[in-house]
Structure formats: structure tokens, C-alpha cells
Amino acid sequence: MRAYLTGSSVKDLKVGSWVIPTAEDGTWKTHAVYTEDKLLKIDETLPLVSAATIYVNPCTAYRMLKDFENLKEGSTVIQNGANSAVGQAVIQIAKHFKINTINVIRDRPNVESLKSYLTNLGATHIVVENELRSPLMADIFKSIPKPALAFNCVGGKSAAELMRHMTDKGTVVTYGAMSKQPLMINTGHLIFNDLRIRGFWMTKWKEVHTKEEVEKMLKEITSIIKTGLLKPPTNRMVKLDNFKDAVAKSMESYVTEKQILVME
């Protein structure tokens, strides 16, 4: 969103500033009136798509990497849904912090192309779901430590498979349920491995943290974008009049591009 008019008491914004509204009052609008405290200023030198998508998926990835485990250089994270927008952000931000990622994807007709794409983003290892019970995993752990942190956006058996490969006292963070299946947890992982099961919702994080904390996070994410290490997901720009087409496209199987609605 761009500021078109500013009142005499506005201090940090000017006409033309790029801003994101913090109020949860809907996003499909071309004009709105806000007080300055309800807007976040965005760096105007960012690529437009990066600026438009910075406030949700990159923030989710950043907070999950920062808030649940004390990860150090050389630590490992495992995640399912690795080709999702959050998954791609996890790969890139983790690479920035020199953290290894094991990225689980579903098998599909273009799987090799997807693996190549995620590798170029910085993925350390990429496995399809049926490889989680193969000797490949043992080979992977010859060169990197077992994960202390797992990100689950699928649920069901997929989440259970992540837990099989985690180090003791690790944390599993669920932020989605794409399979619409209940979370499956092996009791032994709780008793003998002392895994922690947590949940995360970016909206709730924003509700309980100050605007200053949000601005600090956005500043750090912006700095990563400017290094070239955090790119937006593959996307398709769609005029708002064609929103039905964008919604239909997003519901197709094995979609890897994000649908971005353009309001003119």
C-alpha cells in the first residue's frame, strides 16, 4: 500500500511511502484511512513482490527459526511442505544463518525440477516422503547433526515421520495442516525422546508483541532480502478482476507458484 495523503501530525511517513496496515480489517481494498500507529513503513528499495509478501510467510519462517530452539551455525532443521512459501523462506533464512535444512516434499511428475529449484534457494538436503524410511537418511546424518527443530505444515503421517529423525529434546512446531489429518504422535517419541510439541500462528505473535518488535523483525528480514539471499516464491501476477482464476489455480495439485492479486 502507498501513502497518498498524510496529516499535519504524521511524523515518519510522507506521500509515496510504502506501508503495511497492521489492523486486521481485510486486504481487498484500494483505499483506506489509518492513523500512523496502524501502519508499518516498508523499505521502498525492495523489489515490489518482496515488499508485498514480506509480512506473512517470511515473518513466519523467521520467528520459527528464532523462537523455539537456540540454533547455532551447523544446526539442522527438518520441515515438510518445503516447497510452500513458508518452506522456501525457511530454506533461505536458514542458509543466511548457516543452518542446515532437510526438506521434505511430495513425489510428483516434476520432482527433479522442484529439487533443483529448492537446491538453488539453498536447501542442504531434499527428500521425498517415501525416502524418510530409506537408508538415504542415515547417509544424510553422516555429514550433519540430527534436527533439533522440525516445522510441520502437513499433519498426519507426514508429521510423525519428521519426529523419527529428531534429536532428543527437540521441538516440533506445527503451523499448518494441509493434509487436514490430525497430528500423529508416537508416544515413544514423547517418553523416550522427550520431544516438545508446539504450535505457531503469526497473527497471534503480532497480537502479543509491540509494533517496535515487529519493526525490528521486518528490518532484519529486509536486510536479508537486500543480500539477495531471500527471494519471494515463484509467483504469478493476476489482476483483481480475475481473482477467481487465481483462486482456482491455487487449488490445483502440486502448485509451486504463489498467486498475487494486483489492484490497479
TrEMBL record:
Pfam families, alphabetized: ADH_zinc_N
Domain of life of the native organism: Eukaryota
Gene3D superfamilies: Medium-chain alcohol dehydrogenases, catalytic domain (3.90.180.10), NAD(P)-binding Rossmann-like Domain (3.40.50.720)
Compartments, record wording: Mitochondrion
Major localization class: mitochondrion
Annotated GO biological process: fatty acid metabolic process
Matches recorded under InterPro entries: ADH-like_C, GroES-like_sf, Mito_Enoyl-ACP_Reductase, NAD(P)-bd_dom_sf
Coiled coil: none
Any one GO molecular function term: oxidoreductase activity
GO cellular component: mitochondrion
Span of domain Alcohol dehydrogenase-like C-terminal: 85-220
Keywords for the protein's UniProt record, in alphabetical order: Mitochondrion, NADP, Oxidoreductase, Transit peptide
Family the entry assigns: Belongs to the zinc-containing alcohol dehydrogenase family. Quinone oxidoreductase subfamily.
PANTHER family: ENOYL-[ACYL-CARRIER-PROTEIN] REDUCTASE, MITOCHONDRIAL
Protein name: Enoyl-[acyl-carrier-protein] reductase, mitochondrial
